[in-house]
Structure formats: C-alpha cells, structure tokens
Model the fold of this input.
Amino acid sequence: MKRKGFIFDLDGVIVDTAKYHFLAWKKLANSIGIDFSETQNEQLKGVSRKQSLEKILAWGNKTLSEKEFTQLMERKNIDYLNYITNMGENEILPDVVKILNYLIGQQQPIALGSASKNAREILAKVNLLKKFDDIVDGNDVTKAKPDPEVFLKAADQIGINPVDCIVFEDSLAGVQAANLANMISIGIGDETILSEARWVFKDFTEVSIDFIENLIKK
Ligand code: B16
Ligand code: MG
Done:
C-alpha cells in the first residue's frame, strides 16, 4: 500500500469557522468606523490574523500605532473565541469524519495545515485531535499562506515528500500555497474562487472514496 500525505486546512474545510471570523472582524472594523462586507471577508480566508487586520485598515484608509494594532488583534481574538466557545462535533462539516476515518483505515498519514493560532483548541472542541498525526498551525510558521511554509512543514513532520502530498483548502491563498509546495491541491468550496486548484469540490459529500483511493494509488 502506498503512503501519501493528506493535509487538511481547518477553517472552511473541517469546520465552518469563517462565519465566526466574519462576525468578529465586522464588529472590530465597524467599531473603528470601517465597513466590512462578506466579499471582503472572502479575501481574509486563509490569511493570518495580522495580515487580515492590515488589509482591513488599508480598506478603511486607516493607520494605527503598533500598540493600537496589537490591542485590536487581541480584541478580535477575544470576540472570536467567544463566538466559538460552544462549538462541538455538530459543527464538523459533512462527510469530513467519513474521509478521515477512511484514510486512517488505509494507514495514510494525516496532518493539519492551518493559518489559525486557535487550531488545536478548535480540533479539541470538535473532538478530532486524535485523528491527526501532526498539526502545523499559525503558531508554528513565520510566513503566511500563499507561502508554502505551513504545508512543507506538515509534509516534513509526517515524513512524506511534498509531491506525494494532497492538500484540501477552501481559500485561494491556501490553494496557491499548496501549488507552490508542489502538492496536489484540492479546493473545497466555490470553483470560481478556487480555479487554480487541481480539483474543486463543493464540499466533502462530493468527494468519493473511489476518488481518494485513486489519489493513494497514483
Ligand atoms: P486565528 P485556516 C485561517 O485558518 C482562517 O481562514 C483565517 O480567516 C484566519 O484569519 C486565520 O486562520 C488566522 O486565524 O485568528 O484563529 O489565528 O483556513 O488556515 O485554517
Ligand atoms: Mg481555510
């Protein structure tokens, strides 16, 4: 049996935390007089907390001192953590567990590759921590997606060559990061946004076991 590395993004792939990020960023942006739309939120997917705030400030033509910037990032995270406080297994996206269990049954290495600094906490809340062989998140990298660092680190930790890794991503920045890492990118979400991915599926209910089996065999 061949061994491939299966690397999952977290927000938007395993759980739908994008809606909570949106609420927290909107509250913050509005509090400093900046409008914030769902379209703008789309551009923050897969983007680190720091870069997200930089983008919001640029959209609103606002500059802050370093101290204020740090305070706003902290405030956003406190609000975000409040929104996710009651998250549970019911918020795992459809068929994610089915695919993870299939991969575990086939003894395929599984890693998480997320920009979020809250990744471990979220995986614990939804009771999925044990399914991952390794986790690389926003605390472990210095360069944000589309830089491939997060996925290359994940491949290294599970001991699989990047060319033998498959990445599931819901953000354009993440798909670009996977491509730059020379991995097979699979977009989960809107194909017009994720057109740079090797394949795109609306969600995991569209990803068949046959498809996964073929990825392993290749
Ligand atoms: P945090 P992913 C990303 O997670 C989110 O898509 C993005 O919207 C968020 O800003 C980023 O994590 C940082 O999250 O504030 O929790 O550190 O999609 O890479 O799993
Ligand atoms: Mg994501």
In short: The chain has a mean pLDDT of 97. The two ends are 11 Å apart (CA to CA).
